[in-house]
Specification:
binds erythose-4-phosphate; about 280 residues; alpha/beta; TIM Barrel; about 45% helix; about 15% strand; 8-stranded parallel barrel
Length: about 280
């Protein structure tokens, strides 16, 4: 059963239906799931085949991704599942939209994950206009969060995924990004984009994201089980231990055109390249 007083939705960050079942049994509830190409490459059945030397054609891999998503859907029962598009430096808005249209038919409650890039936000806009839900991933700056809000005005089924752990890894406090984005939306009284805290590395980050007000937190099987073992805390018993320098809050308008915002961030580009490499590593 979901802990009393918990407003935040809890998602599993993974791409293995066996883990989804295990977490649902362990926690007694699970609100949704987030996947990406790296997580797909770690799926136990796919890993076994890859380790024995098997590679897939693109259509075979998409079929495997689809089947796993449908297995996860049957366990989660209507909760949101994020499915990530393939994107690299040569991708166009149309490429991403075509993938998104396909993924959106895989289950009832799909959020199509697009990167927080110019192309990604162009695709977000088109997908939203086609009635498709979107999760903008690889978000590493408050300005990207502002652009996502500005470009999705009028729609209410959009997530932004600020990545905590990957900012910590470069010496910047990733939790500040979640706090800043949530504060920016609150100060402008506009929460049509829901904040999904991602790249969560430990229980203190999961709990802090709940305290901050993030509407959704996604975390690995390991972190979710540890959270349960600690009795599902909803508040930290001490101040959150920041893992890098705090990122200062900035004021950004939420109603400017796309070219007003600087979307560049080294970790967005690096993350997109890594996801593309992990996808290609499974293809013959
Ligand atoms: C979820 O949507 C993200 O893809 C995931 O949390 C990234 O986590 P990582 O930084 O541990 O790869």
């Amino acid at each position: 059963m979901k802990p009393q007083g918990l407003q935040t939705l809890i998602y599993l960050d993974g791409c293995d239906a066996k883990d989804t079942q295990e977490i649902k049994n362990e926690l007694g509830f699970l609100d949704g799931q987030t996947t990406n190409p790296t997580l797909l490459s770690k799926n136990s059945d796919i890993r076994k085949m890859l380790d024995s030397g098997k590679k897939f054609s693109e259509s075979e891999l998409l079929e495997l991704y689809k089947s796993e998503i449908q297995r996860i859907d049957s366990i989660i029962g209507g909760g949101s599942i994020s499915v990530e598009v393939y994107a690299d430096d040569t991708s166009t808005v149309e490429d991403l939209v075509a993938q998104g249209l396909k993924f959106s038919k895989w289950a009832k409650n799909i959020h199509v994950k697009v990167p927080a890039t110019l192309i990604g936000l162009g695709a977000m806009n088109k997908l939203l206009n086609s009635g498709i839900q979107v999760n903008v991933t690889l978000c590493f700056s408050q300005e990207q969060g502002a652009a996502i809000s500005a470009l999705s005005r009028g729609f209410d089924n959009v997530y932004v995924s600020p990545f905590i752990g990957r900012l910590d890894d470069i010496g910047q406090d990733g939790m500040s990004l979640v706090e800043n984005i949530y504060r920016m939306y609150s100060e402008q009284n506009d929460h049509h984009v829901r904040t999904l805290a991602a790249s969560v590395r430990d229980v203190s980050q999961l709990v802090r994201a709940i305290e901050v007000g993030a509407e959704i937190v996604t975390a690995s099987k390991k972190v979710l089980i540890e959270w349960k073992d600690r009795g599902f805390p909803l508040k930290l018993d001490q101040e959150y231990q920041r893992k890098g320098s705090p990122i200062p809050y900035q004021d950004f308008p939420l109603d400017e055109p796309l070219n007003f915002y600087n979307l560049n961030h080294e970790l967005t580009s690096k993350g997109q390249t890594q996801f593309a490499e992990d996808w290609k590593s499974m293809i013959e």
